[in-house]
Structures are given as structure tokens and as C-alpha cells.
Amino acid sequence: MNNQALLLVLLASSFFIFGYLLTLIIKKKNTLVEIAIGMSFSVLILLAVFELNSEAMENFNFYFANSFISLGLLIGCLIVGMSILKFADKFIPHHDHHEEINTHHNHLHHIGLMTFISLLIHNFVEGMAIYSLSDSNMNSGLLLAIAIGLHNLPFGMQIGSLMKSKKKTILLIIGLMISTLLGGLLGGLIGTISILITGILVAVTLGMVVYLLVFELLPEIKETENKNKIYIGMVLGAIIMGISLIL
Predict the structure, then answer these.
(1) What is the pTM of this model?
(2) Which residues contact residue 161 at a Cβ distance below 8 angstroms, ignoring those fewer than 6 apart?
(3) How far apart are CA 54 and CA 33, in angstroms?
(4) Which of 158, 156, 146, 162 is nearest to 177 (CA)?
(5) Among residues 125, 157, 193, 229, which one has the fewest Cβ atoms lying within 10 Å of its Cβ?
(6) Are 9 and 152 contacting, i.e. CB atoms less than 8 angstroms apart?
(7) Exposed, middle or buried: residue 206 (CB in 10 Å: 0-12, 13-18, 19+)?
(8) Residue ranges of the alpha helices (H) in the chain?
């Protein structure tokens, strides 16, 4: 077990804490919520297009000679991922986009929980990736840990600004950190898992992200009257994600 590689996994997961701490420093709650929603929206779109989709297809194409099989498997995993969040939707406090005055706070709380669920699998896979790369090349592992940490930052802000209680926020962030660390530990214990299994996990996460974007964040953005702060958040999220992609 490479302890330095595990420290880099911990570094990447700690950015959730940094994002949450920003929500404690910034006092304007409504402004923070709108910026966090915008940041999460742009980060998730870029994450889906430039990382999750390409990684899943790359893994499937490596495993299958026929690209149609790869595409079919991707679509199937997308449906599974979306179905998981749709099923989880039944057990998370109900919200209604058309009754904003009475249920808006519940809706924001709902988005925070759905984001948490969609990130669990993704962070597990990322923990394995950071450990595997760091174990062979520490400098490259450090860059990957920082890159992943940067796009964890907006999600720490989002969960911190949307959840109703500090206790629940801390528990969710700890859960995400544990998910990342478990991925790193598994990478240390058994090495990298099958390319096919990794591709399936990434593609299922992609389905969750698509559901979150289309059925949760997009309706929230449409219902927001003053969208300027949402747009500011989108730009900030795109900048953060752009830096992480460059790294």
C-alpha cells in the first residue's frame, strides 16, 4: 500500500471541505445558492461531455471490437443511471417546481441529496484512478488529484449551500470523502479493476449526471427570476473545470 498515493486521494476529496467552508464564510445565502447552482450546472455539463462520456466510450471500445456494441452498452448504462436517481427520487423529500413559494427550500434540499447520490460512484472510480496513477508516477498523480479536487470544489459549495442543517451537510461531505478513499484503498489492495467494469461504473454515473442536469438543475434555473448570479456561477464553474481539464 502506497501511503503517499493515499494522501493524494485524501487531498482530492478534501476539496469538498474547502467548498463547504466557503459557504460558511459567504454570508449572503441566496446569492451563494444561485452561484452554486450555476457552477454545478456548468461543471456537470463539462464533466459529462469531456470526461465521463469519453472515458466510458474509450473503455468500451477497448473491450469490444464493435463500436455499435459499445454504444448500445453506453445507452443501457445511461438508462440504468437515470433509473437509479428516478428510483431514489421516490424516497427523497418531495418537491414541486411549480409551487416555488411553498416548496422552494425543499426543492433545493432535494437537489443537494440527488447530487450526493450521483457523485458517490464517480468519486469511488476517481479514488482508484488517483491511487493507480500516483503509485506509478507521483507527480502525475498530484496533478490529477488537484484537477479532480478543483471540480469537487463547486459540489462542496452546492451541498453546503442547499442542505437544511450543518450536521447533514457534514455527513454528506464525509460520505463523499469516504467514497473517494474507498476507491483509493481498493486500488491499493487489488490494483486496477477491469476496464469493462470501470466503463460501466462511469457510464452509470453519466446517466445520473444527465438526470440531475435535465430534471433537477435545469428546472431550478428556469424558475429563478434573476439569472445574473446563475450565469456568474456558470462562468466560474467553466473556468474551474477548464483549469482541471488542462491539468
Answers:
(1) 0.80
(2) 23, 29, 32, 33, 36
(3) 30
(4) 156
(5) 193
(6) no
(7) buried
(8) 3-25, 29-47, 53-63, 67-89, 100-136, 138-162, 166-190, 195-211, 218-223, 228-246
